[in-house]
Structure to design on (411 residues):
């Protein structure tokens, strides 16, 4: 028996990872529809480049990096097209939770949406996705020191917007 | 307080070495302010994570599950089709052989959080990281054949016609990256720690995969040869018409 090809390995693991990819895409794009479009583009890209992934490295970090780059590409081509997002598309929906939990979740998400992108991605990778500083820095293509300072500034801004935990 | 807020944050995230952790815990025993600061970091982390937890319970749209279920993606969007086609063209053919070899050796980053105390030859600005000092000088003046504080790798034009160059900077914590010219400055598109890895998976001086991927995604046409590189430098990296598209 031969070992599964890189594409098959990547495909198998991506299937289980889709909920997490959708979650990080929500952090990146701040928009439900854009988020799933981004996941689709990133998965297609990953499958096309599966040979570049090393099994000894984490697939999730690799995917998050691909998603970030794909989003930057998308933003750039959007600016070129000068397309403006329809207002009704903006805004996130939250899964079914109690009204109170939903309200808190919304306020945290709104605060997240106000963060500059570089801080939002650092916070998303470390606090939401649970990556180590090293893994998050690698996914974003920045040195660890830069990652920690973005993370620190992002947290400070969130803390200022949200106040003390209720 | 003798610990910076950044250090307390790293403690709350479980990112500190044992010695610093022990020092903080000793201080926490006698300093309630310190304890509260760490609790605040943890509480915020919990709230942020909780705010996005609902996404994991949502059903995944069928168009996404179909992508990983089938051997080939059948419902590719125009945007995605473009990307896949481009990835197929660029992934193997455009990079010089040595870079492909480097890519196979490289994984990424190993740097202790506390090694990054040298003053950085870059600055965080409103448009992102921008090269300063020795790095700015090297990117502007040096050719790939010159030696200097930084080593220049390949130079090329990106799809918007901007000049881009890869570099490798020898310092206590070596970094490699991709810089693209924007106005009178070099914007750092990607940087990765480029020291040898403890696990031997990255050799000193190799170009990290993150940088190679960024080159791959940005490059229009081929890297400049030595004559074109010199001409672009002597021309002061003036904006030039796009070579592709």
């Amino acid at each position: 028996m031969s070992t599964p090809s890189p594409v098959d390995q990547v495909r198998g693991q991506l299937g289980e990872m889709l909920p997490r990819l959708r979650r990080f895409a929500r952090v990146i794009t701040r928009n439900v529809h854009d988020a799933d479009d981004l996941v689709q583009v990133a998965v297609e890209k990953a499958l096309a480049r599966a040979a570049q992934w090393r099994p000894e490295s984490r697939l999730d970090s690799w995917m998050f990096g691909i998603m970030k780059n794909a989003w930057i590409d998308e933003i750039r081509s959007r600016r070129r097209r000068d397309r403006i997002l329809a207002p009704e598309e903006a805004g996130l929906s939250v899964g079914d939770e109690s009204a109170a939990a939903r309200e808190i979740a919304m306020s945290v998400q709104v605060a997240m949406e106000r963060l500059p992108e570089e801080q939002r991605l650092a916070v998303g990778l470390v606090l939401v996705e649970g990556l180590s500083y090293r893994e998050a820095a690698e996914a974003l293509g920045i040195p660890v020191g830069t990652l920690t300072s973005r993370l620190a500034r992002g947290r400070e801004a969130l803390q200022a917007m949200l106040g003390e935990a209720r | 307080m003798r610990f910076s807020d950044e250090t307390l944050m790293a403690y709350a995230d479980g990112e500190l070495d044992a010695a610093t952790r022990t020092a903080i815990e000793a201080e926490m025993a006698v300093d309630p302010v310190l304890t509260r600061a760490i609790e605040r970091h943890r509480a915020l982390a919990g709230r942020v994570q909780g705010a996005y937890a609902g996404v994991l319970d949502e059903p995944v749209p069928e168009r996404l599950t179909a992508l990983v279920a089938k051997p080939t993606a059948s419902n590719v969007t125009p945007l995605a089709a473009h990307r896949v086609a481009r990835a197929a063209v660029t992934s193997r053919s455009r990079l010089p052989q040595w870079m492909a070899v480097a890519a196979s050796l490289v994984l990424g980053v190993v740097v202790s959080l506390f090694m990054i105390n040298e003053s950085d030859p870059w600055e965080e600005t409103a448009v992102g990281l921008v090269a300063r000092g020795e790095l700015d000088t090297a990117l502007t003046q040096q050719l790939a054949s010159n030696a200097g504080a930084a080593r220049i790798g390949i130079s090329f034009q990106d799809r918007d016609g901007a000049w881009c160059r890869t570099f490798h900077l020898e310092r206590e914590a070596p970094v490699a990256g991709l810089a693209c010219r924007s106005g009178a400055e070099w914007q750092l598109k990607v940087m990765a720690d480029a020291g040898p890895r403890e696990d031997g998976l990255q050799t000193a001086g190799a170009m990290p995969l993150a940088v190679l991927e960024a080159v791959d995604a940005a490059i229009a046409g081929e890297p400049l040869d030595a004559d074109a590189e010199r001409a672009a430098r002597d021309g002061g990296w003036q904006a030039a018409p796009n070579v592709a598209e």
About this structure: The longest helix of chain B spans residues 32-57. The beta strands of chain B are 122-125, 128-131, 150-157, 163-169, 175-182, 185-193. The CA atoms of residues 58 and 185 of chain B lie 44 Å apart. Chain B touches chain A through 70 residues (CB under 8 Å).
